[in-house]
Amino acid sequence: MRTLLLASSILLSAGSAMAQTPADPAVLTPERVFSSPALIGPVARGVSLSPDGQLVAFLRGREDDANVQDLWAAPTGEGEPYKLIDARALAPDAGELSEAEKARRERLRISARGVVDYAWDQQGRYILAPLEGDLFLATRADGSVRRLTETEADEIDAKVSPKGSYVSFVRDQNLYVQDLATGQETPITDDGRDLVTWATAEFIAQEEMKRFTGYWWSPDERYIALTRVDESPVDIVPRFEITGAGTTVVEQRYPKAGRPNAVVELYVRDLQSGDRIKVDLGDNTDIYLARVDWSNDGRTLYVQRQSRDQKRLDLLSVDPATGRSRVIVSQRADAWVDLNDDFHVLADGRFIWSNEDSGWRHLYLYDRNGRVVRPITRGVWPVKGLNGVNEQTGEVFFTASMRDGKELPIEQQLFRASLNRTEAPVAITPAGGWWNASVNAPGTAYVGNYSDPKTPPQSALYRMDGTRVRWIEENRLDADHPFAPYVSRLREPEFGTLQSHGETLVWRMQTPPDFDPSKKYPVVMQVYGGPGTGAGVQKSWQPATSQLLTEAGYIVFRLDNRGEGDRSQAFETSNYRQLGVVETQDQTMAAQWLKRQPFVDPERIAIMGWSYGGFMSLMTLTEPEAGLAGAMAGAAPTDWALYDTHYTERYMSTPQDNPEGYARTDVLPRLGDMTGRLLILHGMADDNVILPNATRVIDKLQEQSLPFEMMLYPGQRHGVRGDPRQLQQWRTYLDFLDRTIGTRSHDAQD
Q: Is the pTM of this model over 0.70?
């Protein structure tokens, strides 16, 4: 389960259920939030440096429609950014995507159209961009763009080969390679059909393992490692995909907890000989293929193999010519071993990888046989991710939420450490906000993305000493910025901590624009709460929804409970075999703390969340000690036996092994303890948290004669897409809040 953020606006209370245009133009309205240009400003997405460091490419939403993206480029030296691929000019008709591409974009949480992805070759001569199901290639030398495919079927997961000789893609469950010099197209596989798919990440890999591809080129272009996925063992879960035009029955292969997964095999195709060699992944086929990487010389294939119970993660060294493998590193844990993207092979055959053996995620240097040479980082704080390596200078770059050697979860910076000795890391970026960074291959420059509560997202190119070379999108909050009319009423959030069972929990609170501490205000608690995601409480730019909530007169509060965010191993595993239990304890503690604040009306606190946050909203509403007045639960998993294998079994084991844990975290037995009003929301085509998660709750509430409210979204999957529907969604939210803890509820009490 990956975080799905609530992204829309909230209806302003005006004593009625419908929006009224406020007299004050500085008051943000939902209609403005869901129109173009986007209030967040010109944000560069998917920013990357060309391999030679001379050009920066990025995606930018159009001014006339922020949901359609074009591909832009900017020289790293002098010169202005320019549009490289105009999505509407090349593909003016946004036709229907294939089911495979729809599913892939759903897993990637891509809701935009136009250019949504692109890839460089390793020389930086070409940029490949999929556009509405076909492929386009931009040649950097002359700026020309040519169409590579024009077929009824979608070409998905397209890549330029490392040396720029070929373009590869998956079409109709098979892998193809196109020679860029001749245009000749060659099928690498031809037997992908029905329940067998080549070179594509299976549902579990995409949704839960953050592996979105099923094939990997060797650096010398001789080999392609590729998966073969057989879904025949997976249970069929009939899913009614209900749209405004009717109903389609989808025979979805959905691997529920405790049930069979797809069988995933790995092969290596030798493009010189044409041979296809099967990789030895061991005798047990009930495993997860987690990651695949090549050595720099292409002579070794590295495979991460995770056990079904996720307590063991093996690193295999594979001979691509024979498929023979050997285990060179094994990570083990009592609860589970987290997957990450920290594996990095050096030119001399040594490699960098992270583990949590110390209780915190840290980077280690290994020799080519898998023996630890030395720790690269250490301390009572976690590495968030390995960003890059400069082998010439012996520098390792990583992100972490740490300051002065102490954990600081609400901020994130880019740091420098040494490959050659274990020493205290040095911060490259300034403190005070939230940084993400993309370091180029040689480790000489990075693209830094920064925001804080008063600075919308900015992107710039930097040298590795932190010196800014040029802005990519400065996104200055000046008089011309789309958010400028509303900035005067932007309230900077307050941050603080609460203690729970020996752990420090962080929180964020934002008050209404005309906040008077002598008055009492209703509170909206926002929650995700689930494990396996980044922090929710950050010193970063907040979505416009937060200001719309405060404009409606609500205090907005969020707490990161135990199990949520990248913290210590003990913090993360506190919910093992009991999802929702410790999280509900912490949210209940937060509700009780809020009720003690002199500016909070203790009778008017509601909670809202989506996905795991929807589950947490239900759990907290049914906790008598929390005493909430209402909850808005979107796309909530209500019985973990209905959710998928990799996510659920990581935290809960299987229903067969942990029946008490599954029973304890089922929402149904708790419904009679609801302390306030409930609004259920769900997409009627959700292929992730399937609709029976909602209907079983609806049925139980009706059986017990308990009143509730419901909003279902025809055709929508695990999120509500498109401005009109999101506007309706948030109008529904505020109408519910207004009647539950807002103006009308208060008037009724008076």
A: yes
